[in-house]
Write a structure and sequence with these properties.
By secondary structure, the chain is α/β, with parallel strands linked by helices. Helix content is 42%, strand content 13%. It binds phosphoenolpyruvate and magnesium ion. It comes from Blautia wexlerae. Its EC number is 2.7.3.9.
């Protein structure tokens, strides 16, 4: 069984009828880098960059971030590595961030919201990512987006950062950008958001908790928490259609992407890629390779 699975390491991400739907890896530390290559993932679909910010006494320096991203870019070579900017706050706290206690941290100052009022911290990360882009195939992705105004601010900061690099003659690539769709607001404006970036990536963990209005960590709700809820699945379909209407790729990077009971449904919805924890790459590849989309096309 395990050996059968391991044979899939070198097999392409193709459905029975030959459609390519790439499987990427979600990682949250440098140790997982090797398993991305070991299991033959298309690349990194989600780097949870928080690991460099947590469990420490002060903000990480730009150079420390840069060296990690450079290592990732070099290790992945031609393979794409999507770096998600820091998604701090809520369940990811560090004392030096000085986030005041919030009654409702899940709905609080987290993700991009926090970054947009810690501009120095955010710019250091943007600079580190752009600097590292010269060494491989990086993309950048923003978490917890809920409005176009946030994208206005991000675009202005990217311009400021890249102008600074230009002035100092530091090389970088014009890397692709993406937005995580993980709030119901982002779903409803996904067409507008898709126009502003190169790809969308569905964060189904947060999207389902915000859609169901249920904390995904609350043990009292475990039995009531249905992440196959038709509301969630319809939202996923809406986002895929919105992205495609703007000729943009749409991926799923929440845990739901690894749920092989849904692989066929996601493929039928037209998803372009799935990003899953390294241990799920081969099981998802096996499920994907069994799907036949030709009936549907007819
Ligand atoms: C998600 O919300 O689905 C997601 C991928 O982000 P995280 O799990 O890191 O919040
Ligand atoms: Mg999330």
């Amino acid at each position: 069984e395990r050996e059968e699975l391991l044979k899939l390491r070198e097999k392409p991400d193709l459905t029975r009828d030959g459609k390519r739907v790439e499987i990427y890896a979600n990682i949250g530390n440098m140790d997982d880098l090797n398993s991305v290559l070991y299991y033959g993932a298309a690349g990194i679909g989600l780097l949870r960059s928080e690991f460099q910010y947590l469990g420490r006494e002060n903000y990480p320096r730009e150079n420390e971030l840069f060296h990690a991203y450079k290592k990732i870019a070099e290790t992945m070579g031609d393979r794409l590595a999507v770096i998600r900017t820091a998604d701090l706050g809520a369940d990811k706290q560090a004392a030096y961030l000085n986030i005041p206690d919030e009654t409702n941290p899940i709905m609080g100052n987290r993700g991009i919201r926090l970054c947009l009022d810690r501009k120095k911290m955010f710019k250091a990360q943007l600079r580190a990512i752009f600097r590292a882009s010269a060494y491989g195939n990086l993309a950048i992705m923003f978490p917890m987006i809920s409005s176009e105004e946030e994208m206005d601010e991000i675009e202005a900061m990217i311009e400021e950062v890249t102008n600074g690099l230009d002035e100092r003659g530091i090389p970088y690539k014009n890397i692709r950008t993406g937005i995580m769709i993980e709030t119901p607001a982002a779903v409803m404006i996904s067409r507008e958001l898709a126009r502003r970036v190169d790809f969308l990536s569905l964060g189904t963990n947060d999207l389902s908790q915000y859609t169901l209005a249920m904390d995904r960590q609350n043990p009292l709700l475990r039995k009531k928490y249905n992440d196959h809820h038709p509301a969630v699945l319809r939202m996923i379909k809406m986002v895929i259609d919105a992205g495609h209407a703007e000729n943009k790729r749409v991926c799923i990077c929440g845990e739901l992407a690894a749920d092989t009971a849904l692989t066929e449904e996601f493929l039928k919805m037209g998803v372009d890629c799935l990003s899953v924890v390294p241990a799920c790459i081969l099981p998802v590849r096996r499920a994907l390779r069994q799907v036949d989309l030709s009936d549907m096309r007819r």
